[in-house]
TrEMBL record:
<feature type="compositionally biased region" description="Basic and acidic residues">
    <location>
        <begin position="138"/>
        <end position="151"/>
    </location>
</feature>
<feature type="region of interest" description="Disordered">
    <location>
        <begin position="1"/>
        <end position="38"/>
    </location>
</feature>
<dbReference type="InterPro" id="IPR013730">
    <property type="entry name" value="Fyv7/TAP26"/>
</dbReference>
<dbReference type="GO" id="GO:0005634">
    <property type="term" value="C:nucleus"/>
</dbReference>
<feature type="region of interest" description="Disordered">
    <location>
        <begin position="138"/>
        <end position="168"/>
    </location>
</feature>
<feature type="compositionally biased region" description="Basic residues">
    <location>
        <begin position="152"/>
        <end position="164"/>
    </location>
</feature>
<dbReference type="Pfam" id="PF08524">
    <property type="entry name" value="rRNA_processing"/>
</dbReference>
<protein>
    <recommendedName>
        <fullName>rRNA-processing protein FYV7</fullName>
    </recommendedName>
</protein>
<feature type="region of interest" description="Disordered">
    <location>
        <begin position="76"/>
        <end position="111"/>
    </location>
</feature>
<feature type="compositionally biased region" description="Basic and acidic residues">
    <location>
        <begin position="1"/>
        <end position="16"/>
    </location>
</feature>
Length: 193
């Protein structure tokens, strides 16, 4: 009777240990996969909402916020620059205007013109830089095409065969001679310089 009781205990221990190990594996998998997922009710509620995933709209919102951030930074820097300029020229910041609405409008329009000028200036600088980059890219592209054409021509000469299938040695010897001249020119030029 005692043996049966012990055997039952051992079998239940094995079952519990296998359950705990499978439970442990399941927990590790859930942790690795990032959680337990959604409940059925939550999933159904999410599906019933009319919020479609629109990458174009997301991109547009990101761009809008990015531009807004740049504008606010630009305004802050302009404000700080004007603040420093006032103290450098000796102007007082406590300016009293009783009924000079026209002056206020002029000041605002002057600020707007200043911002527009700065914008135009930065735009022109950016345009110049872009043109220079495009010119450099075009020059690289032309040099690359020219080198490719030279290599293609040299390859064509090097691959030529006689009617018996032997390589034409004339072009191979010319190629070797050119290489020797280049190396001799480089060695001679560097020693004299």
């Amino acid at each position: 009777m005692k043996n049966l009781y012990r055997r039952d205990e051992q079998e239940t221990d094995k079952r519990n240990s296998s359950k705990s190990s499978s439970e442990m594996k399941r927990r590790k998998n859930m942790k690795r996969l990032g959680g337990g997922g959604l409940s059925l009710q939550t999933f159904a509620n999410m599906k019933s909402q009319n919020s479609h995933y629109n990458p174009a709209l997301i991109k547009k919102q990101k761009e809008f916020y990015k531009n807004a951030k740049y504008v606010s930074k630009f305004k802050k820097s302009m404000k700080q620059q004007n603040f420093h300029n006032k103290y450098e020229t000796g102007e007082s910041s406590s300016k009293v205007d009783d009924d000079d609405d026209d002056d206020k409008q002029k000041v605002k329009s002057n600020k707007r013109i200043g911002v527009e000028e700065v914008y135009k200036q930065t735009r022109e600088e950016m345009e110049k830089a872009r043109m220079e980059r495009e010119a450099a890219i075009q020059a690289k592209k032309e040099a690359k095409e020219e080198a490719e054409a030279r290599r293609k021509l040299a390859k064509g000469k090097m691959m030529r065969k006689t009617r018996h299938g032997q390589p034409v040695m004339k072009y191979r010897i010319e190629h070797l001679l050119e290489q020797i001249k280049k190396s001799a020119g480089n060695a001679g030029g560097s020693s004299t310089a």
